[in-house]
Amino acid sequence: MSHFKELFDTYNWVFSLKSIFDKTAVEVKQALLKDKLDLEDFKALISPAAKPFLEEMAHKSQLLTKKRFGNTMQMYVPMYLSNECQNICTYCGFSMTNKIPRRTLTDAEILKEVAFLKAKGYDHILLVTGEANKKVGVEYIKNAIQIIRSQFSNITIEVQPLDQDEYELLVENGLYAVLVYQETYHRDEYKKHHPKGKKSNFDYRLDTPDRLGKAGVHKIGLGSLFGLEDWRADSFFTALHLKYLQKTYWKTKYSISFPRLRPHSGGLEPKVEMTDSDLVQLICAFRLFDEDIELSMSTRESEVFRNHIVNLGITSISAESKTNPGGYSVEPQSLEQFEISDERSTEDIVQMLKNQDLEVVWKDWEHFK
To answer: How far apart are CA 127 and CA 225, in angstroms?
Structure first.
């Protein structure tokens, strides 16, 4: 099977969601007894039937995380390069229809932002842009990587989906990882939220992790934007996608992120609410499903939630994030992509982690320069 789409097209959303809701307490207990879980076990652990077992799931998730990752937490930081965007997305402050001042950082501004972040201790950086091929296309991204690669051991991007040869070019120039969220695996709902722009092509986005795998990108980050559709079905399809990729591109590392819909200047209410309890259940389910997977938590979540979740399965966390280009030092007042919830400083987050006996890891290995 050369593309995930071929596997994806054999599944039905409605049937998949019903099969999750049909899971029983007996099936949850069976999944909790297993060392190696399959997709049906994962369905059981994200089902309503698993709610009474949340404490047991959390305990097992914590043990597995400590066994595989020790008492460590990887720190990373996003740096927004541009809010230019040619897409219309109902949930994003950068959407083309939002009348906001657009800004793309110059080389000098990028280096000013980097100096601020390096002073904080960061060695893992996530470069983020809107989706605008002309202003922030592959040449702009390549240039940004080139001018900062000597400063970081790990450079990740979250930008518009690219072609395989473009990813290969970026890897040659120092790219380590790519985050690409499907947003929702529900084809019709996806179209509603992405009515215009290159992002409206559901299949091209769905095919992106395959292009990443073929291009030899070292790590691929997956996820859905919870709130657009039922979180359980989207999480199942994320898990299905993950297992396909691990089997097909077995040399590649993978991570999962858990973004929930946050307020922004365009405003979109979640179609399906995901409670804090639901999110804890999902994070624990993914840890039990795959003890090696990196699980990441951004500053979208509240202080209280992040304080509690760092010991239950999360292995990577951001701090002091700004979701606007130049937000750290160049132009702090420019418009954000979405509102962050945990606004504590890097130093406060580091202290919180230390208080929970977690060792902060700024740099886990040296990527080629």
So the answer is: 19
Exposed/middle/buried for residue 65 (C-beta within 10 Å: 0-12, 13-18, 19+): buried
What pTM did the predictor assign? 0.93
Name the band, by pLDDT with cuts 50, 70 and 90, for residue 364.
Answer: low
> CA–CA separation, 184 vs 231, rounded Å?
9
Rounded Cα distance, 71 and 56, in Å:
20
Quote the pLDDT of residue 102. Answer: 82
Closest by CA position to 132, among listed 103, 100, 91: 103
Strand partners, 222: 256
Q: Are 94 and 337 in contact (CB under 8 A)?
A: yes
For residue 368, the model assigns a pLDDT of 45
Q: Using an 8 Å Cβ cutoff, are 96 and 86 in contact?
A: yes
253, 296 Cβ separation under 8 angstroms: no
Burial label, 55 (beta-carbon count in 10 A; 0-12, 13-18, 19+)? exposed
CA–CA separation, 356 vs 310, rounded Å? 9
% residues pLDDT > 70 (the chain): 91
Q: Per the structure block, which two tokens stand in for 355? A: 């208080």
| Predicted pLDDT at 288 | 98
Q: Which two tokens stand for residue 198?
A: 């290159």
Instruction: Tell me, letter by letter, the H, E, C secondary structure of 74-140.
Output: EEEEEEEEECCCCCECCCCCCCCCCCCCCCECCHHHHHHHHHHHHHHCCCEEEEEECCCCCCCCHHH
The strand pairing partners of 295, in sequence order, are 256
CA geometry: angle 129, 135, 138, nearest 5 deg: 70
Token pair belonging to 57: 């799931």
Token pair belonging to 331: 């132009």
Would you say 72 and 358 are in contact if contact means Cβ atoms under 8 Å apart?
A: yes
Contacts of 173 (CB under 8 A, 6+ apart): 142, 145, 146, 149
- Measured distance CA(164)–CA(198) in Å, rounded: 16
